[in-house]
Amino acid sequence: MFKGIQKSILIALTVLAVASCAGTGEKEPVTSSEFLLGTTCVITILDWEKEADPQDAITLAFEKIQSMENLLSVNIDTSDISSINRSGLSGFTPDPMVLDVLNQALDIAGFSDGRFDPSIGRLVALWGIGTDHAAVPEEKDLEEALSTIDYKKIEISDTGRVSLLNPGASLDLGGIAKGYAADIVRDSLRSSGIRSAIINLGGNVLVMGKKASGDPWRIGIQDPREPRGEYLGIIEVSEKAIVTSGVYERFFVEDGVHYHHILDTETGYPVQNGVISTSIIHARSVQADGLSTALFALGVEEGMTLANTLEDTGVIMIDENNRVYITDNLKDSFQLNSGSGYTLAGDQD
């Protein structure tokens, strides 16, 4: 989790016409970026209360992300996650924030029957995707790593002590951490008097407040087959997070084969089910982040069936045949670009 060197850091979403969306006609957007969580994090403030200082608000928000990374990163030896992994069966009592993230990860693991699993750490480290040593593992190493994955063997005591009952298990909350961080940033900005902002944590986008016109935000959904900034359609949202998991985000190529970072907890290899991109629209970024991985791994049929049962959750799923599947609740807010080469699945049926 939070690897500092990535072979491909692609922003999955493009916020359209930011400069024209300032909260009032007089205020200019205030933007700042930091490299945190292994990616480029950008906060753009568009409107704020009279007594608020937007730059101070951004600085405080980045400090909160850094504090969270210090607790959650598997790449920091002193982090609480590293301490849990070292302690194994004997257990370790982490910071309440870590417990909160872990409990939410476990909820999504249960919902997806383990297709999203926070005990995937050994498998993630074995592949090294997003680092300078990414490579296809040996079969015996894959089998060993798979034997350590089982979210049901993560035990949290009444006092908050976390124990890994599966020998050799290793937690990695990278599949949910950026989403959790975006929610923290939103809450921090609100406390600092910010009314309207765009939070972009390496492609995990959260829009806060409204445009000056009162209209919803228009967010471009990245075309997974084109360079960054090329979008296949537009989604209109207000006070929502939009998170995408796709085969193009982090990957490496070995012997002509493309290996992406979304790993199958059953086979140990990158998920191969015909899905190339899944975007989640949700009021809570942490939910969107975890669900984007879980539904991607479940595939079109099972993933979209489950998606349509989720309250206040929008899903856009793209398959390798350039079909775009959307949940019923997005039919009035998503517009596919004409000439994009993609077709809405319902229009083709």
- Strand arrangement across the biggest beta sheet: 2-3-6-7-10-13-14-15-17
The CA-CA distance between the termini, in Å, is: 40 Å
SSE sequence, one letter per element: EEEHHHHHEEHEEEEEEEEHHEEEEH
| Main sheet: strands, sense, barrel | 9 strands, mixed
What would the principal axes of the Cα set say about the shape? globular
Task: Give the fraction of residues assigned to helices.
Answer: 25-40%
* Proportion of beta-strand residues: 25-35%
Strand tally: 17
Structural class: alpha+beta
Unreliable stretches covering 5 or more consecutive residues: 1-24
Residue-averaged pLDDT: 89
- Radius of gyration equals 20 Å
Number of helices: 9
Features of this protein?
single chain, 349 residues, alpha+beta
Lay out the secondary structure.
Layout: E1 13-15, E2 30-36, E3 39-48, H1 54-72, H2 80-87, H3 96-111, H4 121-127, H5 139-146, E4 154-156, E5 162-164, H6 174-191, E6 194-201, E7 204-208, E8 217-222, E9 231-237, E10 241-246, E11 251-254, E12 257-260, E13 275-282, H7 285-298, H8 300-307, E14 314-319, E15 323-326, E16 334-336, E17 343-344, H9 345-348
Parallel strand pairs: 15-17
Antiparallel strand pairs: 1-8, 2-3, 3-6, 4-5, 6-7, 7-10, 8-9, 9-16, 10-13, 11-12, 13-14, 14-15
Helix pairs in contact: 1-6, 3-7, 6-7, 7-8
